Amino acid sequence: MSDPSIKARIALVGNPNAGKTTLFNALTGQNQKVGNYAGATVSRKSGTFFTPHGHKFELIDLPGAYSLDPNSPDEKITRDVLIGDQEGEETPDLVLCVLDATHLERHLYLLLQVIDLGYPVVAALNKIDSAEAQGLRLDPTALSESFGVPFVAISAMTERGITQLKHALRHPFPSPPGRLWKGPAELEDAIEKSIKLAETKGETYPAASGLTAVADKGPESKEFIQKTRFEFIHRAVEAGLQRPNEDSLALTDRIDAHALHPVRGWIIFTALMITVFWSIFKFAEVPMGWIEQGQEALQGWVGSLIGEGDFQSLIVDGIIAGVGGVLVFLPQIVLLFFFISLLESSGYMARAAYLMDGVMNKVGLSGKSFLPLLSGYACAIPGIMATRTIPNAKERLATILILPWTSCTARLPVYTLIIPLIFAGALQQGLALFGIYALGTITALVAAKFLKPSLGKTEAPQFLLELPPYQKPRWTHVLRQVGERAFAFIKKAGTVILGLSIILWFLESYPKSDSDDPIVQQSESFNGQIGEIMEPVVAPLGWDARMGTAMMASFAAREVFRSSLAISYATDEEDGEEMRDKLTASTRADGTALYTPLVGLSIIVFFVYALQCLPTTVVVRRETGSWKWAIGQLAAMTVFAYLAALVVYQTGKLLGYS
Fold it and tell me: What does the pLDDT read at residue 550?
């Protein structure tokens, strides 16, 4: 340890979704460092905190793992750190194991494996409030007696029990309980001999190495050890957990009889999704209007303080208009995040994953790919990183390659600008938006069907999912998630979009034209020159030079498409209605309308399929370890998007549509 004030190192382990990261944040606050493990793409997060006894500990947040028998890169890192095989990482002095109290029996297997390693352990029974709401009654004392380690009931989300947990981290740490389960004499003899051999070789953890060696000798030994562990866990749970009454379970079963029905379940799922997308248009109108009015007032006020000239134009037309044109969509994005968090917190999202598993099996994926794909609706980057939980390497790669076709929130400003040019009324617009998301998702799954066999033969994917009882949404958790995601969007608008808005303003403003006509200025600017080069390429899609320029700019960030159009069409304010009126009134050289429904459809199809996010390409390179896959994905999706938009526009023209 480089810091001499740190008393000891504590490793934080737990199953995915056990609340491990939330607990890490609750303990360490802002005292965090993030990097990567040596030779791996998996993130390494560490932080420090003080206990009530005045001891300073370093906490290492290890990747989520279901067991120490690794089936994914994340699980391998966790296993290697704990047994001392991870390059550049010291072994911890104590393991803090986070257990989801609502799924206790499943999570105890990892705890038992950690105890087998010979570590001092403290167990945190997280989500205790949710467990109590489901009628579960846990006895931490009885569990402590069974496992020989302290159990502390906590709720990391509300920080309930955090002080008691810190008290349990006493230093010097208690002696490890040692292996708690015993097999028949023959197995025990084999384990003892294997441990002695590991000691002779100087293994860091001979008990763990010896046990692993015996388990690896044959499937029968491994299965017997797993069976013995589960029998021990079952006995411990019987003593330390009182399950909910039958009435509570019956309610969940009655709801699931409809929610998981092969026909009614899909009707419910579809109705929920349509409601979500209708709400995005319907309920966001008022707050979007407030943002637009605030932006207009700010532009007017700032413009009155600064004399006319390029500097005023940069601030008012470049920065405020560019960033404001993206922030105006914040209410719609917040609503989308709110509904997703609401469905997760209520327990319904697990049912959606169950329904999708049947569909995904038909295309060679499993329900494990559903959650990363679902994350892609918010942002492709965390969705791609979430594929680390997929144990099958080929399935993981296939999921990464198709994931950008799930429409992320960066596309929403484009969709909500163009859809009202085609459809009137919130219901029709909501149905159109639902259709857009469905189009991207269906195409992604069809692509997986054709892509997976080309990646090599693999075993049929298996998906195990424990469905939680339905519960009232945890509003604190829902609002916190929405707040975090909204802040991330605002941060992007204040950094990436701000910088790009300044660049776009410069390209549109220079070189200066001798004419005062804004159309002439636009055509002679750098932007206009780029557009002239792009026009022959995009004309078959029904687009003009300005749309081609906006499309090129959007490869850095999709949201810039709107800002670029606003500058190109000399829209003074980023008022949504005004901008749509401006676009509707735009004409070609022959006087015909430019933004027809068919052109709008062509734009939407292109944005559904194009990978216009360079940071995503960088993350794909990092996760796959190959520029070949990253660049290949970018090129293939761009070509596919162009061809799809071309087919839509040209077919529409042949059929007589404008």
Answer: 82
